[in-house]
Structures are given as structure tokens and as C-alpha cells.
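Trying the structure run again after the queue cleared.
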Amino acid sequence: MKSIGFGLERLGKIALRWPELASAVVIVLCILTGYGITHLGFDSSVRDVFRTSRPEFARYQQFLDRFSDIGADTFVVFEGDHLDRHLGALRDIALEAGILDHVTGVVSLFSLRTLGADGALGPPLFPADLPAGEALAAMLKRADAHPLNRGRLFSADRGALVLVLNIERSDDPKATFIAVDSQLRQLFAETLPKGVKATVTGLAAMHRYVVDELERDVVVLNAVGLVLAVIIGLVTLGNVWAALITALPPVVAVLWMLGGMGLAGVNINLVTNVLPVLIMILAFADSMHLTYEVRRYRRNDAASARRAAYRTVARVGPACVLAGLTTMVAFLTLALSDSALIRSFGQTGFLAVLGAVISVIVVHPLAIFWLGRLGLAKSWTVPHKARRIVSLRGVSRRCAAFTGRWPRTIAVLGTLAAICLGAIHLQVRPSYSFLENVPQASEAFRALSVIETRLGGGHTIYLPIELTGKAGLEARKI
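Done. C-alpha cells:
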């Protein structure tokens, strides 16, 4: 009879036949992938979310290639009571911000210019010497009516004002933004009027927060997952070594996945960020099955650790491999997506699950072998330490009996539930907002909300205009 695991479980048998050599290969792989983690990058690019093969994205990409600074704006939001009383200081800040490193331009209330009768640009709306009293009020009224303002640069209640800084493009946008942000904070500390609050926000700031969150998630979620895996192993198996052996293959699988991504130059993004936890869960479930089966052979048949591991791989290994293969097929279906981000997620997930399957089938039996060699697997035969598993087996048996008693009823109810939930699913409208990935408690998120609610919004629609002929902007036909 052919194996349901398509023979992949034989990797575990081969590893047990030459355990020293197999262990050396695993250690080398762990060292290489550990080095790869040091090169792991994080990507928060919004553009990749919408990257497809459609002509609309091709035109958008062409637009970005022609106007490379588009989308690099950073906003500085000033808040306070009666900001019109601090216009002189705020204008000085705007001028100083324009000469900071990596800043290529600043747009603000003070950038507004008058328009002559012939359509030519006149002098700045705000002169070098700002007036006071009614003259300043009249000037602000003209600014409110200016087509480039109308509440977008200075709120009507005089409580919010924004500077728009264009940041130069670089190979490391996060480092560039951090440098600009540091300079701005120093500028605020030296020149910001009392009672005025300044906050840096915008897409670059959002990128920084998202990358910081991605880096934090990779560390925190995997650490928490590892601790929970060990705790579950202790509670279920009642043995420290059994719990650690069960948690080892998931850790190796995650190490191989992250290190492999680093070596291949594949960055962690908003989608692939969930893969480490998913891989840890899948590998832990299979590893738990193997650990339980090893304990059963050790307890009932008094088999050696090596023999118990071999028999476990032969009996349970194919089912673990099959479970992994079905998950891999599920990931491969994502390759049919028109989105490059989803396709990349599917391909990375496929390889990650493959690595998890190999880790479980090879690393787990090797760990059992070395525990037996070191004499640390004897405590697994203690009967009372398997009571929790016995109780779980009773629950499983009752569930199986219930299913066997009412198969048609359960099948009909399951089908009806699938149809109803499928109909509900069709009503869900796809949507995406970059702000969903930004901590809502952050100052940048709050400042962006101020722009949206009090300053007319920070989103821009770009209208590319193709110029025909050699006349350029002087051409009559556009």
C-alpha cells in the first residue's frame, strides 16, 4: 500500500539511520538560516498592496517613475489656541524646515501668492513684515479664500496649521525619515512657541510605525508562541523534556523560514507577517502527535527511544505529511491571484510549510534519538503523567461516536451552514486602508486624523497630462 504522505516521511527514517550525519546537516541549516535572519528586511510599501498585471497599475507605475518624489510628503501639524497669534514664529519654522537635510521643498500657508489681473503670479500673500490687528485679519480672510488653501493649510477655527514637507527618495526611506524627524524635533525644541504642539505625520511616518510594528511582531509573537507551546506541552504531557521536544520542531521551522527569507532577499510585509505564527501552530500540532505516539510506544512496548521514534515516523508521519501537503496546496492556489502581494504570500507560505513538514519529520525523531542516547527519555514511561492525554482521548472518542451516530444530520447541517455563511461572505465588500496597520494610539495617527477632520484631508488625486509635440507647456494642444 502506498503511503498517504507520498513517501516524504522516509526522510525521518533516513535521519534515524544516520543520526549523527542528519544532525550535522540540521545544525548547518540552522546556522545558515540564523545568519539569514540578520539580513531579514521589513517592507511597509503601500504600492505593493495594489501591484497587479492590469494596465491601470502599469500607468500608475509609469507615473511614479516620471515623478519620483510623489508620495514622499511628510506633514507637520501644529495645534493650539489662536495660532494666528504665532504666525511669525510658525513661518520661521517653515523656512528653517525647508533647508533641513533630505528636505526638497515645503508647502505651507506662507507659500501662497497673489494672482495678478493678467494671471501672472504676484508677491507672497504674507509679506516679510506681518501686520497686526485688522490688517492681519483681512490677510487671513484672503488666505481662506485662496484656491490652494480654503481650510487645507490653516483651519477656519485658527487651531490647526500644517506644513507639507517633500522628502527626497532614498534606498532606505526609514533611515531618511528618522533623520528628518530628528532634525524637526530639535527645531521644535528651539523655536516652537509656548502653547503650540507640533506633530510629524504622513505616509513616511506611517511607514516607520508599520515597520516598527512588523519588527516587534516578529519578536513578540514568536516568543509568546514559543512560551505558550511549552506551557501547553507541560500541561498536556506532564514532562519537561517532552514539552521541549514538542516545541523544538516549530522553533526550527520558524528559524528556517525567516532565515530563508533573509537569504533570498524576501522582506517581511503586512501579509507575510502572519506566517511565522501560522507555521509554528502547524508544526506544533504535528509535533504533538509525534510526541504522544513516541510516549505510547515507550510506555506500552518498552521500545528504545530510537525504535519508538522510527515506528512513530512510520505510523504517524504520513498523516503529518499529508496535512502539510494539503496546506501547501492551499497556499499554491493563492498564486492564481492577480495581486503580486498575494502571490508572493502564497509562494512564501508554500515553502514555509514545506520547511515545517521537513522540520517535524526530521528534527523531532532526531531529538528523541539524542534524548535516548543521553538517558533523558526514561521519565516518559511514568504512567500518571499521561492522564491528561488519556482524558483528551476520551473526549475525542465521544466526539467520534457522536459523529458516527448522526452522520447524515451533521452532513446536512454542515452543508446548510456552508451555504448560509457563503452567502454572507459574498456580501462582504473588499476594502483597504493603510491606517488599519498603524497603532491608533500613536501621535502620527492622531495628527493625521486632525488633517482629515480639520484641514480638508491629506489625500491627493494626481492627474497626469501628456504634452504633445516639442512645445512643452507652451503647446496649444495637450
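The chain is about 60% helix and 5% strand. Worth checking whether this holds up in the mutant runs.
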